[in-house]
Amino acid sequence: MTTAPPTSTGPAPSVEHDKAAESRVGLILRARELGIVLALAALVVVTAVVNPRFLSGQSIRDLVLAAAIIVVLAVGQAVVVITRNIDLSVGSVLGLSAFAVGSLLQAAPGVPVVVALLVGLAFGAVCGLVNGVLVRFGNVPALVVTLGTLYVYRGIGFFWAGGQQINADKLPPGFLAFGTAGVLGVPWLIIIALVVVLVAGLYLRTYRSGRELYAMGSNPEAARLAGIPVGRRTLAAFVVSGALAGLAGVLFAARFGTIDASAGTGMELNVVAAVVVGGVAVFGGSGTIWGAAIGALLLTTIGSALPVLGIDQFWQQAIVGALILLAIGTDRVVAARIAASLRRRESHVVS
Amino acid sequence: MASPEPGRPLLAVRSVAKSFGAVSAVRDVSFPLYGGEVHALVGENGAGKSTIVKMLAGLHRPDSGTIELDGQPVELHSPADALAAGIAVIYQEPTLFPDLSVAENIFMGRQPLRSGRRIDRRAMNARAAAYFTQLGVAIDPDRPARGLSIADQQIVEIAKALSLDARVIVMDEPTAALTGVEVKRLFAVAESLRAGGAALLFISHRFEEITALCRRVTIMRDGAHVSTDPIDELTVDEMVRRMVGRPLDTLFPKHDVVPGDVVLEVEGLTRAGVFADVSFQVRAGEIVALAGLVGAGRSEVVQAVFGVDPRDSGEVRVDGKSLRGGSPAAAMRAGVALVPEDRRQQGLVLDASIERNITSTRLGSLAKLGLLVGGAERRFARDWAARLQTKYSHLTDPVGRLSGGNQQKVVLAKWLSTQPRVLIVDEPTRGIDVGTKAEVHRLLSDLAADGVAIVMVSSELPEVLGMADRVLVMREGELVAELPRAEATEQTVMFAATGQGAAA
Fold first, then answer.
1. Per the CB < 8 Å rule, is A223 touching B97?
2. Distances (CA, A) of B24 to B48, B63, B223, B264, B431
3. If you ran DSSP here, which 8-state letter would residue B227 be given?
4. Domain B11-96+148-245's class?
5. Extents of the domains making up chain B
6. How the protein sits in the membrane (chain A) (predicted)?
7. SS3 label, residue B220
8. Buried b (16+ CB within 10 A) or exposed e, B466-486
9. B299, B341 Cβ separation under 8 angstroms
């Protein structure tokens, strides 16, 4: 019989192992978000060198205003993706909410902006609730459910609008001013996006129910066994995503002033791209709100930097595509490396 | 050790029954769990032990009967109810969240809080560290659970039970994948939990562990309660007799076969980190069993032989011809068939019809001009289903609707119809009832008599001992023993599999 290799390691070496593995893993996780920040910084520097006007006040202002809406959507999407689901209906919900709030303001111009925001939020929450109910009780994958509601919500929007368009001159000036004005020179849209990021980020990091969302995405079966109310949390995640898409619809209406039934078409893919590039794993369980927000900022910056650099529209899409593949590829390679190294280290086999 | 009759049981299972469809998984089972005692629950696979565990975990509700805690009936509607009642279950496969830290895994849903209901990470890590100190292990509470060894994962599960102040702790085959040192550590922990007044329910197939750890034993067979006795009133032989409940020879109708030429040769097969330097030969007409503990690498070896998994080095020859690695198609052409371990995931397309499943390996020869036309497919499927005495109502029914035993027959039919020279079966009778088990065994025996070389991976020792001409024992990825039928006993195989005989 062969001599048995040392099997279970004693306490001391195993601590070292654990520490080493942990710091390595921690480093990679930190590097994951650091990577996006560096990419963003590099892009800004290069673009500014080519065209210094890229860093002018107006240009930056336009950039962050455009990013604010995507960031709000990305936060909602991240919450859903962390639970190992996906919400493809956000673009349609945004369009529907924008049109609903636009119609409301057209009919009752005296409605305060806060009420408009709340109406959009509530409207989106209802759409999200429908998604959540279908996913939870229909036992259908979220991809299919929300692909369906993407078309359903869009269809309702077209039916409702009937080809009509709400123009800026029909909207109350106070609402339009909200789209550009702010406090101490910081536009409201940005303040709202920041608040959403901070609240959601804090919630997912430090609240029990927030951690349970990660647990559900990390191992759904174990989540059930641990007594986590998986159905209720799933429902809540979709309601949050829908509500934020509704809120983004109001921001969209305020910023652009012109709303028709096709507002926000195709936006869901940009949002999913932002979340994935931001390091939220598509299979759930890991990633952060900050990462998703930075991912959204990066994609928006690419969108406005490439024209400044004189790069073709076609290349913009190709670059976004390449970034997604790079992000997913990095995650897979890193995961495989970690798994392989742990497997070799933990195994008792002498090879 | 004297076993005074303790007072009221902490938890009592009272005549519970549970059926799934027409299949009765558990009927009229009762036993008490006393505080400060370890209670063994034994029975063959499929005897209904895991159904009992799932009832205690709040995953299944009994159709009739009750579970009583401190003399009061409790309704366990969900895992949360069971946890709230102080019942913690440690599963054979630990159920952790790989992306979250070890401390979060322990305290999920019950994390210590600070102001504003925020999670107090520092307190959480400190408390987790305190549990690990108590358990005598060094695991960093802040590291992710991904990559922990099975033993460490089980320690995390035990820390979870400690943090729940669980009074009833169910351990479902906790030692199946552990090495000797790790088993000792687990036993020390179990002993201290017991001394602390908890009631432990311990499920294991290893009698030396049961006699060493437990005070009382409940035996189940085919879903029914057989007996509950203090352990020192029972011999191991008596326990086995009650578990099996029938003479072993009818369950294992083994023909004596004179082995023919070597058909399958495996030489130096290695896959880094999984198994190393595995070599063996199988002759025509021989049944060779691969035995060992769960996680010893048996399934991985046969999957590499068949080419589903890649191999890093080594050679596989069929009839002297070398087989390309990583190609199941090449293996099938050479006459090798693999009936996988997990028939639902790997062996069948559950939603497809019975006939489609049976003919899926033979589409090429059944098709005319590349099309499956006429009744050839149906005739072929009907023929094979009849040969294996498969019970079905329509050949067009989805195969998922059949019972486990009949599903297994469909998988066998699918592969036997290729008329293999080498048949590899991985856990051929897992989760199927005793009657069908005997049929599957008879079938394997007949095939061997017809000159097929059979490699059988099995975790059921009686099956290994009853069916195999030779037993190859694996431990931790290595082939550690080869025992001819005459020398293979429960003791010799288990000693080799656990490595405990080597040191003694």
1. yes
2. 9, 10, 7, 41, 13
3. E
4. alpha beta
5. 11-96+148-245, 250-335+420-503
6. Multi-pass membrane protein
7. strand
8. bbbbbbbbbbbbbbbbebebe
9. yes
Interface A:B, Cβ pairs < 8 A: 150
Question: The tokens 């010893």 sit on which residue?
Answer: B296
Q: Between B138, B142, B185, which is nearest A22 by CB?
A: B142
Q: Taking CB atoms and an 8 Å cutoff, what residues of chain B touch A14?
A: 137-139
The per-residue pLDDT for A137 is: 92
Q: Quote the tokens at residue B60.
A: 């299944």
Quote the CA–CA distance of B405 and B428 in Å, as a whole number: 10
The token duo for B59 is 């995953």
Nearest to B339 by CA among B348, B331, B347, B329: B347
Tell me whether strands B168-172 and B422-426 are parallel, antiparallel or unpaired.
Answer: unpaired
Q: Give residue-wise pLDDT tens across range B107-133.
A: 998 899 998 899 999 999 999 999 998
Long-range contacts of B321-328 (CB under 8 A, 24+ apart): none
Chain CA centroid to CA B44, Å: 11
Tell me what pLDDT residue A83 has.
95
Query: Dihedral of CA B55/B61/B62/B67: which sign?
Result: positive
Report yes or no: B79 at the A interface, CB cutoff 8 Å. Answer: yes
For residue B269, list its beta bridge partners: B278
Kindly list the residues from chain B whose CB atom is less than 8 angstroms away from the CB atom of residue A15: 138, 140
Q: Is A340 on the interface with B (CB under 8 A)?
A: yes
Q: Domains along chain A?
A: 35-46+54-336 (1.10.3470)
3-state secondary structure of A224: helix
CATH fold for the domain made of B250-335+420-503: Rossmann fold (3.40.50)
Question: Looking at chain A from residue 278 to 297, which residues have their Cβ under 8 Å from any Cβ of chain B?
Answer: 281, 285-286
3-state helix, strand, coil in chain B (%, to 5): 35, 25, 35
pLDDT-derived band of residue B324, with 50, 70 and 90 as boundaries?
confident
How far does Cα A242 stand from its chain's mean position?
12
Average pLDDT for A240-256: 95
Three-state DSSP class for A48? helix
